[in-house]
Structure formats: C-alpha cells, structure tokens
Amino acid sequence: MFSTLVGSRLPPRYQRFFKLPERRQSCKAENTRETILGQAAQRWIEGHQASAGLYRLDSGQDAMGARVGLIDRAEQTIDVQSYLIKDDVSGNLIGLHLAAAADRGVRVRLLMDDALTEEVDSGLLSLDKHENIEVRVFNPFPRRRSRFISLLANFNILNRRMHNKTFTVDNQVTIVGGRNLADEYYQAGGETEFIDEDLLVIGEPVDDVSDGFDEYWNSPEAIPMAAFDRMVAHSSVAESVKEARKYVDEHLDTPFLKGMDSRLVEEFIAGRLALVGGSAEVVQDRPDKVRKLVRRRNSVTSDFLQKMVSAADKELIVISPYFVPQQQGVDFFGALVKKGVRVVIISNSLASTNHSSVHAVYARYRKPLLRQGVELYELRPRFEAMATETKLTLHSKVATVDRQRLFVGSFNLDPRSLYLNTEMGIAVDSPELSTNMATSILDTLPDFAYKLRLSRKGRLQWLLQTAGVEEVITTEPQTSLLRRFLTKLMSFLPIEEQM
After folding, report:
1. Structural domains in the chain (count)
2. Which pLDDT tens digit goes with each residue over 282-301?
3. Tens of pLDDT along 239-276?
4. Is 19 assigned a catalytic role?
5. Is 62 an active-site residue?
6. Is the residue at 281 inside a domain?
7. C-alpha–C-alpha distance, residues 341 and 183, integer Å
8. On the chain, which terminus has fewer CB atoms closer than 10 Å, C or N?
9. Catalytic option among 86, 163, 289, 359
C-alpha cells in the first residue's frame, strides 16, 4: 500500500559517525478517498467547485486541537515534519495520540531536524520502537563529540537546517505554517507565547505536500533513529506512554488543556467548518539545498516569493519575526513604494524577540527602510489587555499581496532562510482569505505593535497608541540599558550572513 522498498547505505559523510541500520524508502498512501477525512474533503471540494479548501489557524489552542483531532481520526497514515519537538505538554500530548493511532494500525512517520534535538525527551524518541512508527532525523550532528566541535569541523553542512513544518493525515488534510511542536507555539500559558499562523488545507495541495514530505523522508540526509548510539531510548513504548500520560494528566487543569478540543476537525467531518475556497500552490525547497555549498544562491521558495511580492500594485503586508533585508531588500521594498505600493512590514521589537543577535543586524536597516517610505512596525511584548506577565514573541511568516494572494509558511526574510535552511509554505489565490488576513493584521497593529518613524533630526522614534493617546518613545521600548548595550555590541560582529 505504501510502496515500501529497501533503500541504500547511508551517505559516506554519515558512515563515520553512525551505525548502519537498514534504511527503507516509504511513500504516501495513494488510496485514502474512502477514509472519513477523505470523504469529508471530497464532499466539500465537489460542493464548492474549488481545487482547495483552507482554514486559518491563528489561535494556538485551535492549532493544537486540530492536530490532535486529525491524529485521532487518522485511519492509514500520519506524516509530521518539524524543526523542533519539545518535552513539554504539547510534545507529550502529540506523542500520546500518535502512539494511540499507531496502536490502531496507522503508519506514523515523524521527521525532525537535528538542530535542537537535545531538548527532545527520550520518551518521545522511544516511539520509534513501535512497529507502526518510524522517527528520522534530518542532517544529524555526530554523537561522539560535542555539538560545538562538530559544528566547527563540519560548518558548511551542519549550519544548514530543515526548517519546514507540515502535518498531514491520510494524505487528505494537511496543516502548513510556522508552528513547531512545543508549548510556546500554542499559547499554552508559559512565560513566553509565540504569535503564529497555520493553514489547514484540503484538496489538490495536500498531495503536493505529501510528495514533498516523501522527498525529504527518503533523502540521504534523513537518518533513522536506530543509527544513533546515545539518542535511542531504552524504555519501552508502554513505559514511555505511561510517563507521558502522567505528565499530561498533571496539567489537565490548566486553561490550555481545558480549552482545547477537536471541535474544528469534527466540524470539518460534519461539513460545518467554514473553509474558504481558492487555488493554492505548495512552494518547497529541495532537501539537497543543504548540500549546495555555493554561497548566496537563491532557492525555490525565495525565488517564488520574490516574484509574488514583486507583482504587488497597491499593498504588500509582510510579517517576518526575523527580518534582515540586507541592502538588496531595502532597494527592493523601496522600488515597490516608488511605484505606488503601500508596503507594511511587521517584525519583533528588541523586547519581544527571542534572538537578540538577529535584532542587532535587523536594526541596521530600520532607518534606510523608513527613508524609502516603508511602514515599519515592531511587536509589543506586553500590552494593557494582557492580564499576565507572559511575554509575546512574533513567529508568524505571512505575506499578503493586494488582498488577492497570500503566503503562509516557514520562510523568514533573512539570509538564513534565503541561502542556508530549507523552507516551505503555501501560496493561496483567494481574495476572501487574503482580505481577512490583511484586515485582521492592520486592525490589531495599534494594540499589538509600535509604529516606527524618523524624527526631524533623523532619529528613530516608536509611537505607542493607548486609549486614543499617542506616546513617543525615543529608545528601544521595554528594554534595559544592559540589553540595549549588549545588542549594540553584537551589531558590530560579522554575523549577518548567519542570521
């Protein structure tokens, strides 16, 4: 059913560091139209005469609830691709439901990048021992020496990461966007919460997402968990599930779990989910991008996005949490302004970012962008309506063009996404969805963001609007003198190409 074939040996650069397990190819499920998700998707597509149906997941609870609900309704396959999985409530919750699906006979493939796997718990990794679950790690670090030494010795290869995020069930429904599998991406109530975006998608694009997953899964860089000496968990699946259940049960009374359910998936199956029809194109870098060591070579995703936003005639809205446009980007956005396009760019402030080094480089381009007529906004980490001390960080990667087209995915406007990491996303032709996205973004800017401007003397100012009163701030808002000083020091380092 899944066209499983025996694969080849590991690539030579990995053979020095890992044991050589049997490596097998596997592919998407072809005949899933009769699954409950397949039937629901087909009814909607036929009833709306659209090639794709899309639903915006801008709420963290809805985004997690949709994932759990899809897992619970899976009948044949689950494919999960993620840059990061954490040993927290979200990671354990997903692990529990994946194990239950595998117990029902569902084939589960979990592909994760290796950049932050030290934070992944052994219980989740032990899922690989389940007969219906396989875990693979993309472009792994050697395990016989420290990561720092490995990175120095193999910098050109290990500096390149898989940043893609997809979540596909029965090759009928997929979720594409910016969220990894960790609490902060689902507003679970921790010290930091990420503002993020996903799209739930049915129709033609789902098969393209599955094809892309297969290409990554079967690529030489996707190494089976059995190859690792120190990462293979020693506990049984049953023991790991028991530990995960205990951990999740300890958090059942939290607002996050109390408010989370699979309502959206059940509404979809019942035909009541308010999907938006449109045409959509999956845009994805090839996995061999991590092998192409030529510097400053654009990728599939970057080339597509450049063409898409270049076509703007009236309005371009870009959300990029890590924004390093470089001079070519400043010139590009300036040219759009000169032809009459309103260009709005939203990124993190120094107070909201989780990467001060990125902000140090981004800060170089704020004045040049403002001089070009670009509207620049930065997220406020806290505002009056927040009843907690939770810090907000922007993580959405979104672009809307003329309220006709939009892009949601993993791509940041920075050199790392352009030249180093693999990225993906989905481009949608839908005036309804694009207008909804653009309107909601612009309507919330006064409450959520500072607007930047230049004073008459050319100095940066941050405008804060509260209760109809405008306040002018002349230093990086909500930051300490020490953080500003350290960030300024970082701005002198030659780190721009790595941001």
Report:
1. 2
2. 999 999 888 766 555 678 99
3. 888 888 999 999 999 999 999 999 999 999 999 999 99
4. no
5. no
6. no
7. 37
8. N
9. 163
pTM of the full structure = 0.93
Whether 397 sits among the annotated catalytic residues: the reply is yes
Tokens representing 198?
Answer: 């996903």
Give yes or no: residues 322 and 213 share one domain: no
CATH of the domain at 217: 3.30.870.10
Q: What are the tokens at 287?
A: 């996995």
In tens, the pLDDT along 351-360 reads 999 999 999 9
Active site residue 288: no
d(CA 57, CA 264): 10
Instruction: Clarify whether 402 is annotated catalytic.
Output: yes
Last residue of a domain, one of 234, 269, 304: 269
Give Rg (Cα) of the chain: 22
Say yes or no to pLDDT of 324 above 80: yes
DSSP β-bridge partners for residue 359: none
**From 165, 289, 359, 391, active-site residue:** 165
| DSSP for residue 421 | S
Q: Give pairs for 273-277: CB < 8 Å, separation 24+.
A: 273/55, 274/55, 275/44, 275/48, 275/53, 275/54, 275/55, 275/202, 276/53, 276/54, 276/55, 276/56, 276/430, 276/432, 276/433, 276/436, 277/48, 277/49, 277/50, 277/52, 277/53, 277/54, 277/430
pLDDT digits (tens, 9 = 90+) for 450-490: 999 999 999 999 999 876 788 999 999 999 999 999 999 98
Beta strands 342-348 and 375-379, pairing class: parallel
Exposure string of 119-147, with b = 16+ CB inside 10 Å and e = fewer, is ebbebbbbbbbbebbbbbbbbbbbeeeee
Structural domain span for residue 434 = 294-498
Task: Tell whether 192 and 325 lie within a shared domain.
Answer: no
Residue 277 within a domain: no
The per-residue pLDDT for range 40-54, each reduced to its tens digit, is 999 999 999 899 999
Residues 316 and 216 occupy one common structural domain: no
pLDDT reading at 497 higher than 70? yes
